[in-house]
Amino acid sequence: MSDIAYVITGAGELTAVPAADTTAVKPGYAVVEVAFCGICGSDVESYRKGIPLPPSISGHEWGGTVISVGEGVESPAPGDRVSKTSAPSCGKCPLCRAGHHADCDRFSARAASSSPATHGAYTRFVQVPASTLVKLPDNVTDEQGALVEPATVALHGVRLRQPGLGGTALVFGLGVIGLFAVQLASLSGAVNVVAVDPDPVRRDAALGFGAVAAFAPDDPALQQRLMDLTDARGADVAYECSGQASVLTSAVPLMRNGGALVLIGAGMEPVQLVPALWLSKGLDVQTSLAHTRDEFDITVTLLSRGLLKTKGMTGTTVGLSRLPEVFADLAKKATSLKVLVDPRG
Ligand SMILES: [Zn+2]
Ligand SMILES: [Zn+2]
Fold first, then answer.
1. 134 C-alpha to center of ligand 2: Å?
2. Which domain holds residue 86?
C-alpha cells in the first residue's frame, strides 16, 4: 500500500509526500480506504494565502471503507463504511474534569492541529484512531460520507443557538456548511430561513433546501424582505458560514434586539467594529468551533432518515492525480458546488 498523499505546504504549493505506511496497523487504529474526500474552503484558503495548516487538515472531509483494524478495536470492523469524526476529549485534563469537554485541547479541531499525522485524506489509504470513526448505515452513500464532517460543523453551530419554533434565521455563505445550516435551522423550528451569498447557483440551491428567500449580500432587498417577514424585528439568529469577517458588521442591522450571531466560518481578515452597535441591540456573538464527537452520530441519523438532504450539493468529482490543477483553479475562482476527490482516480 505504498502511495502518495497531497498536503498544502505554502502559497500555491500542493506537495506530494509519501503516504504513511498502512501495512502495519497500530493497536487502537483502523486503516480505511478513502472513497471520497471533499475539498474544504479552508484548505483552498490555506493554499491561496500560504497559511500553513497542520498537514493532517489537508483533506479532512472524508469517508471510506475499513480495510483492517489493530489490536483492541471492537468497532468498526473490516468492511464497515465509515466517516471521519473529531477526536473525543481526553477526559483527564482540568477542563474535562470540570465538565467542559468541548474546551479540551485534545478534542476536535484543536486535536487535529496537534496531530502527528503527516497528511490528511488526499490519498488512498489512511490510518486513524478507530475511536474517531463513525459507521455509516447502508442508505448513506459514499458521497454523503464525505459530507458528514461539514454537515456536523453546521449542526454544532445550530445546536449552540437555535432559532426557536416559529423563529427567523439568516444564513450567510451557502457552501455546503451554509446549505446544511439552512436545513438544520428549519429542522430546529425556523419558519423563515433567509439565505445570503453572492453566487446565484448557491442561492438557488438554498431555495431548494428550504430557504424562503435568498439574496446577494449587497442586495438592498435583503433587509426589506427580512423586516417584512419579521414584523420589522429582524432575525433571531444568524449563522455566519461564509468566512467573511465583514459579516460581523453587515449582519448587525438585520438582527433583532437580543438576537445571536453564530460564527461558524473562520474569517481571517481584520474588521472594524463599533461595539456600541452590538451593545445597543444586546446582540450575543457565539463562536462555534468545529463539532463534538457525539454530534456526528446525530448527523448520520439525520442523513439516514432523509431529514438532511444532499442532492445537488456536490459538483465535479476529480481523481487524485488532478488535485494540483484543481487547487490552482479553485484558488483563482471558487466553484459553486463542492468538489469531491476520488483517490482511486
Ligand atoms: Zn472543512
Ligand atoms: Zn481534556
1. 21
2. 4-147+313-342
